[in-house]
Amino acid sequence: MSFPQHEPSASTARIERSHPDELICGLVSISDRASGGVYEDQGIPALKTWLQGALTTPVRFVERLIPDEAPGISATLTELADTVGCDLILTTGGTGPSRRDVTPEATLAVGTKEMPGFGEQMRQISLRFVPTAILSRQVAVIRERGTTDADGATLIINLPGQPKAIRETLEGLRDADQALVAAGIFAAVPYCIQLTGGPYIETDPAVCKAFRPKTAVRPA
Ligand SMILES: Nc1ncnc2c1ncn2[C@@H]1O[C@H](COP(=O)(O)OP(=O)(O)OP(=O)(O)O)[C@@H](O)[C@H]1O
Ligand SMILES: Nc1nc2c(c(=O)[nH]1)N[C@H]1C(S)=C(S)[C@@H](COP(=O)(O)O)O[C@H]1N2
Known about the structure:
Elements: E1 23-30, H1 32-35, H2 43-54, E2 59-66, H3 70-84, E3 88-92, H4 103-108, E4 113-114, H5 116-127, E5 140-144, E6 153-159, H6 163-171, E7 172-174, E8 180-183, H7 189-195
Parallel strand pairs: 1-2, 1-3, 3-6
Antiparallel strand pairs: 4-5, 5-6, 7-8
Helix pairs in contact: 2-6, 5-6
């Protein structure tokens, strides 16, 4: 099935789904140098390219390129979650130990629930690529709106800043025979969004096989 592609939105207005399964997805690149024009941002293009290849249900992107400033990061996440109504926000950058790396603190500040499994799994995957993976302090949270599922929620996940790390952590690692050695974190994202009242999203299993318990699979 193919769905219409929407231009990414830069507006702060609420986005209404054009299809019940449409994922409203915020992409936030956090980099002093990319946001300051020192180099071209590769974070948002890498996130978008991977998601467009992985998702088989429709998606609408809302993009932000911002510096490593905690108040600005928290404000951007809050705006994308509460005003725009994103189901999912992926950030890239600012998770390391440097003084300016404050993405995890700014993310925890806006969460209502911490989801530690995402960070744990990302570090496990990344350790198979680089020994410095333990330097990434990436976290994930859910920001719940209102008091019921109908009010909505946003899953926010920090990814490392290296553009190549985006695919590595989302998709995981395969061996020479294409067997999965370490499951990418995106395999758990569709069910998490479903459990928090969001759309039913599906993926191409050749890229990333989404896992749901049988009882949660929607009949064809
Ligand atoms: N948005 C980006 N676009 C392109 N390359 C990036 C981006 N973010 C990070 N990188 C690359 O990954 C490396 C490590 O990322 P890290 O987030 O630690 O950057 P940094 O040294 O904190 O600098 P900055 O915040 O200015 O990107 C950077 O040195 C850069 O080469
Ligand atoms: N998959 C993967 N994870 C990775 C890396 C990488 O190259 N690939 N780089 C590591 C390094 S060197 C650092 S310092 C941390 C934090 O990066 P950030 O500050 O860009 O978020 O991510 C780590 N995680």
